[in-house]
Amino acid sequence: MSRRGLHWVMVVCFVGLGLGIGPAALLGQGKSRAVREAAEYILRKFAKEAGEETVETLARRIERLAFKHGDEVIQLAKKGGPAAIHAVEEAGERAPRLLKFYAQHGENALWVISRPQSMTFFLKHGEDAGVALMRHGQVVEPVIEQWGTSGAKAFARITDSQQARRLAIMHNSGELAKIGRTEELFEVIAKKSEPGWADRVMDFIWRHKGALTVTAALAAFLAEPEAFINGVKDITQIAAENTVGKMAEGIAHSVNWTVIFLALLGVLGSLIGLRWYWHYRAGRQARL
Question: What is the reported pTM?
Answer without folding.
Answer: 0.69
